[in-house]
Amino acid sequence: MEPYSVYKLLLTRAHMGRNRRLRHACAAMLYPHYNACYLCPDATIRPMTPCERARYAATHGPIGAYIPTCDAAGRYTPKQCSGSTGYCWCVTTTGQKIQGTDTPPGTAINC
């Protein structure tokens, strides 16, 4: 069995929630070996989107860094917020900040 099939099998089993530690271990093995792959909710594997790559990099970077929010298809959600500052702003579909949309913590924003 080629490595891709092994990882897909492990991830499929792990994704079903049978073993949380296995799920995290498999994801950690898959990303470096296949240069950014993602396990979809339907247990298929596809290349990571730019949003998912940015999110993965941020979650493995310095504490307090802004972590992008992606939807189920891997696209940037229109509203992005910083967990450390509480500020929110609107972004384009490519994740570029829309000027003038910064809002302080506790302020409603509609993107």
UniProtKB/TrEMBL annotation:
Disulfide bonds join C51-C70, C81-C88. GO terms for biological process: cell-matrix adhesion. GO terms for cellular component: basement membrane; extracellular space. Keywords: Disulfide bond, Repeat, Secreted. InterPro entries: Dev_reg/Prot_inhib, Thyroglobulin_1, Thyroglobulin_1_sf. CDD domains: TY (cd00191). Its main location: secreted. PROSITE patterns: THYROGLOBULIN_1_1, THYROGLOBULIN_1_2. Coiled coil: none annotated. It is found in: Secreted. It comes from the Eukaryota. This is Thyroglobulin type-1 domain-containing protein.
